[in-house]
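Closing statement on the glutamine sub-project.
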Amino acid sequence: MKTYLQVVRDLLRVYPDGEARALARWLFEERFGFSTADLLLDKDNHLSADDRANLQEITSRLCSGEPIQYILGHTHFGGRRFCVGPGVLIPRPETAELVGHIVRAVSEMPGGGSGNGLSVLDIGTGSGCIALSLALDIPGAEVTAWDISPEALAVARRNGALYPEAKATFSRADILSPPATGQCWDIIVSNPPYVRQCEARDMERNVLEHEPHTALFVPDDDPLLFYRAVAGFARSHLTAGGWLWFEINQYLSSETARLIEDFGFRDVQIREDGFGLPRFVQGRMAD
Ligand code: GLN
């Protein structure tokens, strides 16, 4: 375990113990396919000089705060692999919980289980992780996904190519001046930017210095601007009884729920994430 332990030792200069070990294990697993058992068998002691040099370079990038997902060029979301890169938000585990809630809600629909013909719109798709997971997990669903960022769309389309069985199309759109369309969707979902500038001081350096601020931040004096825009659009573009689903800022859950009610949505519910924080809001259009 010599090389592995050297990497852990280097990472410990910057990261707390558990995180340093987790990062090193992740790196050896993803980069070289080494399991913990392989490390115990000292397989890492037989890496080529090129591999060792590469490892050193990656370790110094990790020490400078670059997220491991950007370095490796991919991450895992809901059990699937997705490409990521600078310019696109790294999918979070909470967001995979949102996908799970939606899939479950669809399967519990009358006549349930099959999403045949079900149409979904994902606003601010980023890497496309929500859009593609829904397209794959709701059989027959057809997903439209929008983002304002051409960089994000390029990554989302690359992910689409990884899952050709998913019926998902990606296009450029700005929800603050949405495209004129007569189309209606059965589900509209969004994980828009929701972190207030005043919360930046509590954020990790690797998020603040590397992830796209346009995907994260909203002004302190109007933190719900994207929720207002999405809910306003959804009011005229959801089918009767259609669902609106959001990931939300945990500090603004009641304000967000109230906003959605003010737009006329019913059955508005706040849901907690796995950390016990109010993280999702759902609402329905009148039948
Ligand atoms: N949950 C993300 C974070 O805390 C923010 C995601 C978002 O703004 N939509 O970094």
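Residues 92, 191-195, 207, 216, 247 surround glutamine (CB under 6 Å). With this model delivered, the sub-project is considered complete and its resources will be redirected to Aim 3.
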